[in-house]
């Protein structure tokens, strides 16, 4: 069913907006950690989103292929699992090519 879409972002403005959204979510998530772990979590940076020459936004379209797709009826999470596999394959391919991805 290949429910994924790959959106290539090279615009500085779009990458800054994406980094802003990631930072907002990171701060919202940190409140669920205890103090030491929250401090460590907040030390992780999202600057790479703005510095990378290209950002790939991966989305999931659960409607692709219609309402009856092999696997989707018995395991509703098939869509998101397929997208996760696509990202993992992209990660492995970039590593094999000597490129970085995060």
Could you describe the 3D structure shown?
The protein has 102 residues and is mainly alpha-helical. It is 51% helix and 12% strand. The chain is built from four helices and two strands, in the order E-H-H-H-E-H. It has helices at 12-30, 35-43, 47-51, 78-96, and strands at residues 4-9, 55-60. A two-stranded antiparallel sheet has the order 1-2. The two termini are 25 Å apart. 3% of the residues are buried. The model has no long low-confidence stretch (mean pLDDT 87).
Furnish the topology, listing elements before pairings.
Blueprint: E1 4-9, H1 12-30, H2 35-43, H3 47-51, E2 55-60, H4 78-96
Antiparallel strand pairs: 1-2
Q: What is the H/E order?
A: EHHHEH
Summed over residues and divided by their number, the pLDDT gives a mean of 87
Report the end-to-end length measured between terminal Cα atoms: 25 Å
Q: What is the tally of beta strands?
A: 2
Helical stretch tally: 4
Overall morphology: globular
Q: How is the main sheet built?
A: 2 strands, antiparallel
Helix content: 40-55%
Reading side by side through the largest sheet, how are the strands ordered?
1-2
